[in-house]
Amino acid sequence: MYKGEIIHFIGGITEYIGELDQTEHPKGTGWYRIKNPCYFVQQKSPDGKSITLGVSRIWGVDKLYRKYVDLYCPPDSLIEIRTLDKNGGFYKSYMNQLERPSLDKIIPPTGADLQAVRGH
Would you say the pTM of this structure is higher than 0.90? Predict the structure, then answer.
């Protein structure tokens, strides 16, 4: 079920978009693995009158996180799985996120950088 599809997994704290792993989960019943996960990001317009939804991958810098999320759904919880349309905007945004190059290092700001931002 859902093989070769990108799904929107709704239920729980965070909604994920990704590929539902078709193999039995190592932790057993009630667990799901979403491969290449992304989540929705809400962005407010500069004028504050509208909100748009974007898609963002979660693994960030290479090797910071593995490229999957494990979810547990108790038997009495409500979940919904929607299949993304391959011609739709969410699917295109998802694919763009997967193709986006990853950062390979993070350079933390120095005290001088912070002073420059503050204008001192």
Answer: no
pLDDT tens digit sequence for 50-76: 888 778 887 666 667 788 999 998 888
Strand pairing report for 51-57 and 68-72: unpaired
CA angle, corner 106, sides to 101 and 109, nearest 5? 135
Ranges of beta strands (E only) in 1-120 are 7-10, 16-20, 31-44, 51-57, 68-72, 80-83
Beta-bridge partners for 55: 40
User: d(Cα 76, Cα 93) in Å, to the nearest integer?
Assistant: 32
Domain boundaries, the chain: 7-118
Residue 111 DSSP SS3: helix
User: Residue written as tokens 């190592």?
Assistant: 26
The overall longest dimension of the chain from CA atoms, in Å, is: 59
